[in-house]
Amino acid sequence: MCCVDVGHTCPVYPQITSPAGRAELERAIGLVESVADPDPVRRAAAVRRLLPPELATEALTQAGLRAAARAKFGSLAGQLLFTADGLEQATRVEVADHRAARFAGAGLASVLDLCCGIGSDVLAFARAGLRVHGIERDPATAALAAANTTGLPVRISAGSAEQADWRSAESVFLDPARRGARGRTFDPAAYSPGFGFVTEVLLGSRHAAAKLGPGIGHALIPEGVEAEWVSFAGGVKEAVLWSAGFGVAGIRRRATVLPAGLQLTDADPAEPLIGPVGSYLYEPDGAVVRAGLVRQVAALLPGGRRIDDQLAYLSADAAADGPAAALARGFRVLDTLPYSVKRLRSELARRGVGIVEIKKRGVDVDPAALRRELKPTGPHSITVLLARTGDQRLAILAEPLAR
C-alpha cells in the first residue's frame, strides 16, 4: 500500500489527506464536469454557487487539468490529480511503460525515482511489477504523487534528489525539472537537479536511467552511456540516457518509434551512398534523426541513399515496406524542380492544387509565408518538399504514401 512521508509543514491539499476528503474532491470534480455550459466564466460561476470557495477552486482546476491530460493518459487521466507543471513534464503512458519495461527486463525488483513529480513514472514502474520509492522536492507535489499511487507498492517522500541515498538503491531513475523562472529550458546546465548530478548518478550506478529533453547534444553523452531517443505518433518525446548495466555491447545510440515498437541502433547496417532524387522520397522519424541514424534507415530502403550528406531526406527506387515504412514517412515523387516561387506557383496552378503541405530541410523558407505567396487554388492536394543539395535548392513535388 502506498505511503507518503512529507512532514507536517507540507501545504497539501486538505481534500487528499483522507479517503473521505478525496471522495469529496472527486464528487466536486464530477460536479464541474457535469455542468454543460461551454462558457468557462458562467461554468465557474455555477460551480462556485454550489461548493465552498476553496473546494470549488480546486475542483475547477483539477477538472481542467484532467481534460488536458487525456492526450497523455487516456482514460487514466480521470483517476489522477495534477499540477500544471507536473502535467507538462509527465511522461505519456505508452512511453513510460516502454521505459519501465526495460527496467523490468533487466531483472530488477525495485527502483528509486529521484524526481517523481506527480507520479506518472512511478505508476509505470508499478505496472511493470517493480517496488518504487519516489522522491519529490516539492511537498505539495509529493502529496499528489502519493494520492495518485494509493494502494500500490509505492513509497513517496518529499526531499532533495541530491541528498537521497541513491548509491544503495538497486536501480535509479531521474527526470530532472526542465523549467525555470522564465519557462522551459533547453540548457542541460539549467536542469534541476543539474546535469552534473545526472551524470554522477549514471556513472555511479549499475542500473540508472535519466529522462532528458530530446535536444540533448551527442557531445554531452558520457562515455559508456547509451542514449535513446523515443518518439510517439511522429513526435519526439524524450531522450533517455542508460547506464552501463542496461547497455548492449556496441550500441551507443538508439531510436525507438512508438506505437510501432520499432528500434534502430548505431550497430545496425548503414548505407553511406549519396545520390539523386529518385522515384520515392523518405523523411525519417524524428527519433531517428535525433539519434543520428539516418544512414541506418537508408540501408532498409530499396536502393536507399541520402540526397545530401547534410540532410535527413532519403531517396529510394521503389516503395518500402516492413520496418522502413514505419521508421520513415514516404512520398511518391511527381516532379523535381529548381526552387523558385514563380515557377512553383505556376506548376501548382497547372496541376489545380489548392491544398499544399510544405516541408523543408536546408532551405531558409517560412512555409506559412510561402503558402501565401503561392496562392494555391483548385481541388487537388500536394506535398512540396524543399531541399538544398550542394549549391542547388530543389522543390520536390510529391504525394504521401499510405502508412
Kindly describe this structure.
The protein has 13 helices and 19 strands. It has helices at residues 19-34, 40-50, 53-73, 84-89, 93-105, 120-127, 139-148, 195-204, 286-290, 294-298, 323-327, 341-351, 367-374; strands at residues 3-5, 110-113, 131-136, 154-158, 172-174, 179-180, 183-184, 208-212, 226-232, 235-242, 253-258, 262-265, 280-284, 305-306, 314-316, 328-338, 353-361, 380-389, 392-400. The chain folds into three domains: 8-70, no CATH class; 88-264, Rossmann fold (3-Layer(aba) Sandwich); 280-400. Mean pLDDT is 92; it is low at 1-12. A ten-stranded mixed beta sheet has the order 1-4-3-2-5-8-10-9-11-12, sandwiched between helices. A seven-stranded mixed beta sheet has the order 14-15-13-16-19-18-17. Strands 6-7 form a two-stranded antiparallel ribbon. The longest helix is centred in the first third of the chain and has 21 residues, at 53-73. The two termini are 44 Å apart. α2 (40-50) packs across α3 and α5 packs across α6 (120-127). The protein is globular and about 70 Å long. The chain has 403 residues and is an alpha/beta fold.
